[in-house]
Design goal:
- The structure holds 2 protein chains of 2 kinds.
- Chain A is mainly alpha-helical.
- Chain A is built from 9 helices and no strands.
- Chain A is flat, with a radius of gyration of 21 Å.
- In chain B, a hairpin with a 5-residue loop joins strand 6 and strand 7.
- Classes of the chains: A mainly alpha, B alpha/beta.
- Chains A and B meet through helix 1, helix 4, helix 8 and helix 9 of A and helix 1, strand 14 and helix 6 of B.
């Protein structure tokens, strides 16, 4: 324990710099994935096959291929098509795009779990689809899917550790840097694991808080 | 219905207990604290050898030399187009096995990542590490380095059609340099081209990909790696110049076993300057070209082609 705390204190500037990048990357990607998930959900559930079929193909491809391959494709492959992105932006796009497709499935399961009686009641009150969705279906679906959204967000936070493969100086990259200097790998990576644990616990805490608050409103 | 610490709530589809009281929050905080305690109480492995007696005796009794190698640093250790693990370091390990057992196949390769190299040796999971490792003073605190088996100055590679003519041309905010994610590269960047943008990659292969894909204008790594990348991508890459005096790559062993260290150190000296030089030179020529083979005499100058 003393070794790990000493390591954190001795190399704090390096850990802090990595932690800042990880928090920024994770926060931006969670927000974007949350929104992208809705877009993917609507496009894959729409009536028009012109949009629905390609989007389903994209969602399936994105979910079923490793994130690392997608990172490499976006960073090393897109320049061949004239698109050159910075490492941070490439990682942000890869994380948001893949996790967004997982979010879309969470939304789908949440909306399908809402009782049909709610929709019928909304229609009986004369609500148009958008009002029915926004005021009746969405709040219930969000409450039900909050634990899954929290779990997916934590997965995304952990996946940011892959971004150092394309030169994003995040937390895992900081540990690798210290290890190559001669620092014990066990100390460095346990220190990083501790920071990830605090980060993911905070994320779970936020989700638990929202869940409790919204469930109270629902009740 | 209210149970101590729990509150039953109702929805249209299910009923379940909810942790919504202060007791629930306290339990959650306690579980996080327990997780932190468990992580923080993980013991760092002892850097002393795991068994008494010399590794020298263990290796001779076992009849096989276990060598930690890399798979991510061509030409030292990498997976080739036939999906086989090959490289200069692996051939050097075979030469070592030949010298010890008179059998170049009496070697077991332990492929590991660069982050795991010190612990792998300290914990006795391999007898010796031969994996494109440059000798730096801070690394000597972790392991004992044998006599260097290859000189590896730091070099810069650029695309063949690059306008740059010297290292000085890198020092511009418009230039992006793909560095390795190690302190020495950071230092070199600050010394030679502080104005340039730095991108830190985890392996030489990623550095080369960054330059070939246009994500970086130059890459900085060991000279043999740059030379090999140029040979592999003939016509696409060229050498811009050297940024560091000649450095040394060496095999490393446990720092607590002098007999084993002395044995390995002597064999590497023999490879470079003595009875094993002929075989060593043959391996060197195969990977880096006939003209780049270092001379047998100690202290002789090495010319960079």
């Amino acid at each position: 324990m003393i070794d790990i705390l000493n390591r954190l204190i001795a190399d704090w500037p390096r850990f802090y710099s990595g932690l800042t990048t990880t928090v920024l990357l994770a926060a931006a990607s969670i927000l974007a994935a949350f929104l992208w998930g809705w877009i993917v959900y609507f496009l894959t559930s729409g009536r028009s096959p012109i949009l629905r079929l390609p989007m389903r193909g994209y969602a399936r491809l994105s979910r079923n291929t490793p994130l690392l391959i997608q990172l490499y494709f976006i960073f090393f492959g897109l320049p061949a098509l004239g698109v050159r992105l910075s490492p941070f932006i490439a990682a942000f796009i890869a994380l948001s795009a893949q996790h967004g497709t997982f979010f879309s499935e969470i939304y789908r399961s949440g909306l399908e779990a809402v009782s049909k009686r709610s929709g019928d009641a909304a229609k009986a009150l004369g609500m148009v689809y958008w009002h029915e969705f926004r005021l009746v279906l969405l709040p219930q679906a969000l409450v039900r899917t909050m634990p899954a959204i929290g779990g997916q967000s934590v997965l995304l936070i952990k996946d940011t550790s892959l971004a150092s493969a394309i030169a994003v100086a995040e937390l895992t990259g900081a540990a690798r840097f210290l290890t190559s200097r001669g620092t014990s790998a066990v100390d460095s990576f346990l220190a990083v694991a501790l920071l990830y644990f605090v980060l993911t616990s905070l994320a779970y805490g936020v989700v638990a808080f929202l869940e409790a608050r919204w469930r109270y409103v629902e009740a | 219905m209210v149970v101590k610490g729990y509150k039953w709530r109702h929805s249209d589809t299910r009923e379940r207990p909810m942790l919504t009281t202060r007791t629930g929050a306290v339990w959650r905080l306690l579980s996080v604290a327990l997780g932190i305690f468990l992580l923080a109480s993980c013991e760092t492995p002892d850097s002393e050898p795991i068994e008494e007696g010399s590794i020298y005796n263990e290796v001779l009794d076992r009849g096989v030399l276990r060598v930690a190698v890399t798979t991510e640093a061509p030409p030292f250790g990498f997976i080739d187009e036939n999906d086989e693990h090959v490289g200069f370091d692996l051939d050097i390990a075979r030469l070592l096995a030949q010298a010890i057992f008179e059998d170049e196949e009496a070697v077991e390769f332990v492929p590991i990542s660069f982050e795991a190299r010190w612990e792998t040796i300290q914990q006795g999971e391999a007898d010796v590490g031969i994996m494109a490792t440059t000798v730096y003073p801070d690394r000597v605190q972790q392991v004992a380095f044998a006599y260097p088996y290859i000189a590896s100055g730091n070099a810069i590679g650029v695309t063949a059609d690059s306008d740059m003519e010297s290292i000085d041309d890198l020092n511009s905010p418009d230039v992006t340099v793909a560095n390795l994610n190690i302190p020495e590269e950071e230092e070199r960047h600050e010394t030679f081209y502080p104005e340039a943008r730095s991108r830190k990659f985890e392996s030489p292969s990623a550095q080369v990909s960054a330059v070939l894909s246009g994500q970086a204008d130059a890459f900085s790594t060991d000279l043999p790696t740059v030379q090999y990348a140029i040979r592999q991508n003939e016509g696409d890459l060229r050498l811009l110049g050297l940024t560091a005096e000649l450095l040394n790559n060496a095999a490393f062993v446990s720092p607590s076993d002098f007999r084993w260290y002395n044995f390995i150190d002597t064999l590497f000296w023999e490879m470079r300057h003595g009875s094993l030089y002929g075989d060593y030179a043959e391996i060197y020529a195969e990977w880096f070209g006939e003209g780049n083979v270092p001379p047998q005499q100690p202290g002789a100058e090495i010319e960079v082609e």
